[in-house]
Amino acid sequence: MAAQILATLRGGLGANFAGLTSISGQPTLVLSYANSGVVDTEGVDVAVNYYISSRWLAEASYSWFDFTVQSKRTGDQLLPNGPENKYTLGLSYSAIKFNASLKYRSVEGFPWAAGVFVGNVPSYDVVDLGVVYNINANWQLGLDVSNLLDDEHFESFGGDLLSRRALASVAFSW
User: Fold this and answer.
1) How many CB atoms are located within 10 Å of the residue 126 CB?
2) C-alpha atoms less than 13 angstroms from C-alpha of 103 in its C-beta half-sphere
């Protein structure tokens, strides 16, 4: 009977059968990400802010990342789960009563491997908007819109499908 139960579990769990164990006498399935090894990494981050005037700010940034796997365990996929290239552009306005910013972010596609989530994250572009209005010295209204143009995408393989998100706020300070 025990051999038949084990054979059924082995057939139903497939490769996950190796994670079957017993904890305090209870059958338990324990699985863990396997991604250990030795990796050399290198990268560059560059950012520039240009003050057009006392109220206007233009900003740009660029990031480059690379890696080389020196050694890994058999069967492991060692990936940085991040893009090789990404950049941002932004424009901000700041005054006593009103602040606003518009930012653009472009991310190159990249491979992803974390546990059972293995695949490619396609390139994506996102525009974010932030607006703050100071009613007086104590009260403030705000609006943040992430992914203003509603570019549905995911930023990690197996992660949420992201679309536009708006958050309004009211703040009181003293």
Assistant:
1) 19
2) 17
Q: What is the pTM of this model?
A: 0.75
Residues 6+ apart with CB under 8 A from 97: 133, 134
Tokens of 6: 């084990």
Task: Give pLDDT tens digits for 54-105.
Answer: 999 999 999 999 999 888 877 677 888 999 999 999 999 999 999 999 999 9
What single-letter amino acid sits at 115? G
- What are the helix and strand counts (H, E) for the chain? 1, 11
8 Å CB contact between 2 and 8: no
Contact between residue 29 and residue 20 where contact means Cβ atoms under 8 Å apart: yes
β-bridge mates for residue 100, sequence order: 93, 131
Q: What would the two tokens of residue 33 be? A: 């990400």
- Residues 145/166, Cβ–Cβ less than 8 Å: yes
Q: What is the largest CA-CA distance in the chain?
A: 81
What's the length of the chain? Answer: 174
Contacts of 71 (CB under 8 A, 6+ apart): 37, 38
